[in-house]
Amino acid sequence: MTLRRKPLLALVLGLLVPFSSLGAQNRIEAITRPSKDVVLSFVRPGRVAKVLVKEGDKVKAGQELVRLDDEAELAQLEQLKAQAEDETRVKAAEAQLAQRKVDLKQKNWAFDHGAATKMEVEHAQLEVMISELSLKLAEFQHKQDQRKYEEAKIQHIRMRISSPIDGAVERVLVEPGESADAQKEIIRVVKIDPLWADVPVPLSQARGLRKGTSNVVVEFMDEGSVRPPRVAARIIHVAAVADAASATLTVRIEVPNPTARPAGEKVYVSFPAVDKAARPGKATPKKLAARPRKQDRSR
User: Fold this and answer.
1) Residue 114 Ramachandran class (φ > 0 left, ψ -120 to 50 alpha, else beta)
2) What is the largest CA-CA distance in the chain?
3) What is the predicted pLDDT for the residue at 224?
4) N or C: which end of the chain has fewer CB within 10 A?
5) Residue 170 is part of a domain; what is its CATH number?
């Protein structure tokens, strides 16, 4: 080997050392996925009036995406609003009750002065009772009209699809003018910052991992890259049930993705080394040494 090739070889080996130091057994293969992935649909059929976004657009939570034709529903909504705001029947029932009370007062005065019979007084009392019930019925009907209006507003809101998350539009499956069936997939929105990955960790290694651990290393497999990108991630979930067939436990990690790398990439995940002696339920040598010895009482 010539002297000129030796420095180049040393440089290449120097770049590879940090990755080999991770250890082949500690690197576990996984696939990234969006941290949020929602497929949205309408809960009622209708004709698509407007599609307000296109694939690739960034959206905010609450932003309207697709709208159904709501001309008929708007007309009905105006009608129900008018009924909910109308208090004519309630006021008429109040006026009638007030009149019946005046009539009863006059009948009582006339009865006290011998100008009316007891039957006429009782009849006036029944008229007051009927008027009170009519007022309650009018108030109840008015509240029902208000509830119908609120229900119609909710149904109208359901004719529009809004994004439940901050993210990006991945797919739009309808065009204006098309008929949309209930529960038919309309639009897909994903969030890829951060990314998630479910890692099948061997049980022997997973027992020492805890939610919140942040010194997890994720290595992306960029083809042609001498030094693949490495990102620090954290554990957000450790499964409670292991896979008996593979003797692994799923550990979910969260990977920051400010550069908007696509989800679905293959990565290698390296977890921090766990001190076996520090695991719960196992005493360290120092703890064993600190335990007081039992005195031999046989002496």
Assistant:
1) left
2) 139
3) 60
4) C
5) 2.40.50.100
